[in-house]
Amino acid sequence: MFRRKPAPDIQLRARIGTDVAARVEANPRVVNAGASAAQVYYHDDFLDPGLCRLLIETIDANRRPSTLLSDRAGTGFRTSESCDMDRWSPTIRPIDESIADLLGIPPEHGETMQGQRYAPGQQFRAHHDYFHDKESYWAAMQASGGQRTWTAMIYLNDVEEGGATWFPQAGIKVSPKRGLLLTWNNMKPDGSPNELTLHEGMPVVEGTKYIVTKWFRERPWTVHSG
Ligand SMILES: O=C(O)CCC(=O)C(=O)O
Ligand SMILES: [Fe+2]
């Protein structure tokens, strides 16, 4: 009898999941967040305060309303402001490379680091970072490096109140803390999308929240214009 082989992209995603998890598990500064439903880890003080401040200044100088890939979400879904960080700048590049090195993923797989700023009341409602292959954007994403595997986020400041990153189904809530890097695998260990990685950036109540986010693709990321 024939047993159908898993598609190659599923195998690739499974391998990335295993390799990255093994690498971060072996890093004494990385802590497993303890979710059984998803591979979630954090690293305290990943970025020093001076660099956090510099990134905040860059975000403030370049911010514009955040956008969404999905055509299904309504207004109010992602109300923050964002900007792309220039990966070739002498300050951003080493940070980019250190995140990639932490995970053991080649830097070329990383999308441009994105800065985000949330004022009081602003939020990013519950979503998945992986691409849904039924959505209209999928063909373009597949052509530009394929599925998103791991996400890495760094909180650039402490926030007076609110602004936690909440994974309601995996049962994890992380409060912003300057320099803390949070990372998770958007795929399951078998390489299929992990729906339990659903997460949201909860509304900021008091203060301003600044983060940078990197999404890693299964293959090298390429920008397609037009
Ligand atoms: O702001 C947060 O805590 C979450 C941000 C997020 O989910 C994202 O940028 O994909
Ligand atoms: Fe997200």
TrEMBL record:
It comes from the Bacteria. PROSITE patterns: FE2OG_OXY. Coiled coil: none annotated. Transmembrane segments: none annotated. InterPro entries: Oxoglu/Fe-dep_dioxygenase_dom, P4HA-like, Pro_4_hyd_alph, Pro_4_hyd_alph_FE2OG_OXY. Residues 109-218 form the Fe2OG dioxygenase domain. It is an enzyme of class 1 (oxidoreductase). The keyword Repeat does not apply. The keyword Iron applies. Its cofactor is L-ascorbate. Keywords: Dioxygenase, Iron, Metal-binding, Oxidoreductase, Vitamin C. GO terms for molecular function: iron ion binding; L-ascorbic acid binding; procollagen-proline 4-dioxygenase activity. It holds the Pfam family 2OG-FeII_Oxy_3. Its EC number is 1.14.11.2. This is Prolyl 4-hydroxylase.
